Amino acid sequence: MKPQERFDLIMSRQSRFKWGGEYVPSTLAVPREAPKGSRISRLHSQKLRRTLHLLSWPEKVFAQLALYHPDLFEMHEQKMLWPINAGHPLRGHPLTKGTFPPPLRGTVDIAAEIGFKHHQIVVEDESGRQRVPYPYQGDLLLYLLNSRGEPYAVNWTVKDQAGAFRERRRTSPKTPVQQRGDREHAELRGELERQYYASADIRTVEVSRDMLTPTIQANLDLLFGMHDLNSSLEATLLDDFSSAVADAVQTGNPVAYVAIEYSARWGLRDQFIAKIYQDIWDRRLLVDFSEPILIDRPLVTGGCDLLQEFSSFFEETAL
Predict the structure, then answer these.
(1) How far from 262 is each of 222, 233, 257, 285, CA to CA, in Å?
(2) What distance in Å separates the CA atoms of residue 230 and residue 227, rounded to the nearest whole number?
(3) By the 8 A CB rule, do 196 and 103 touch?
(4) What is the mean pLDDT, run by run of 10 residues, along the chain of 319 residues?
(5) DSSP string spanning 20-68?
(6) How far is CA 106 from the centre of its chain?
(7) What whole-number distance in Å separates Cα of residue 91 and Cα of residue 105?
(8) Considering only the top CATH level, what class is 3-211?
(9) Domain ranges of the chain
(10) Nearest-angstrom CA–CA distance, 142 and 123
């Protein structure tokens, strides 16, 4: 896809978004659009009622972590950073009616202030050829409710390793001059995004996959894969089953035995098993995420609660 075609595509998707409609990311997780070598994935969220487009494995992991939070009500992946001044991301949302959230400053002005060379492309239209600023993209923009029921946004910029925030193309062989240039570029690109969102009172949080243990990542992936499976069982029966599962957890018995017992009478064993994972995902069962979630063994409670362990990632303001 040519740069002008990609530019036009991004603008057509992002410039017309209004709350109440379905969000479309700047870049879709499809081979034709995703960067070469990226590990794309598409996740269907029951909460958001749409498919998310993630361009890397770290984005997938952190999208799952964000969706686990009960106060999250929307998330915009691959959100365009406006080159010119634009409205606050929450502008027009029903929960902001009667309020005046601050606008976003354009990336072109911010780039000029911090000494960052803004990416540009040449486009051709009826008036001829001209250079225009090409929009950057963020990774994950979270929308949550605070303790007062008011909406706020938090911007997550996502990498595989924390060191990647300090140097572009960190694992590539390079000369000292190239390394210095890549470090400067990474620092300024990060500062550009921080200042862009800070202009609208939105925190930017750097998150990297090495902050989460492999066990936590595996548990999130397991639970998310089960969270939206449909069930044909009656709601009252599932409520009884959930109570029996909670009792088994308290007494230290493997919850798989409860699923076997119920399925012996009602059938549909897979649906009962899925319900166990869904109760963990919905925080009806609080388990230790630092331990593998194995339903054929006693579930470990206490320990690592993700919302406490990583509460700083979700904070409206830095503590």
Answers:
(1) 22, 11, 9, 19
(2) 9
(3) no
(4) 90 92 95 90 96 97 98 98 97 92 97 96 85 96 96 97 84 80 90 98 97 97 94 94 96 96 94 97 96 96 93 88
(5) TB----SS-SSTTTSPTT---EEEEETTTTEEEEESSHHHHHHHHHHHH
(6) 23
(7) 14
(8) alpha beta
(9) 3-211, 214-306
(10) 32
pTM for the structure as a whole: 0.93
| Nearest alpha-carbon partner for 40 in 60, 23, 24 | 60
pLDDT digits (tens, 9 = 90+) for 245-303: 999 999 999 999 999 999 999 999 999 999 999 999 999 999 999 999 999 999 999 88
**In angstroms, rounded to a whole number, what is the distance separating the alpha carbons of residues 221 and 218?**
5
Q: Say which DSSP state 75 is in.
A: E
Q: Which letter does DSSP use for residue 101 in this model? A: P
Counting beta carbons within 10 angstroms of the beta carbon of residue 199, is it exposed (0 to 12), middle (13 to 18) or buried (19 or more)?
A: middle
Contacts 24+ apart (CB under 8 A), 265-270: 266/233, 266/237, 268/232, 268/233
Task: Give CA angle at 5 (50, 20), nearest 5°.
Answer: 30
Q: Contact at 8 Å (CB) between 139 and 78? A: yes
Rounded-to-integer distance, Cα 188 and Cα 116, Å: 6
Would you tell me the crossing angle of helices 57-68 and 214-226 to the nearest 10 degrees?
70
Residue given tokens 């210095």 in the structure block? 180
Q: Name the nearest CA neighbour of 287 among 222, 239, 202.
A: 222
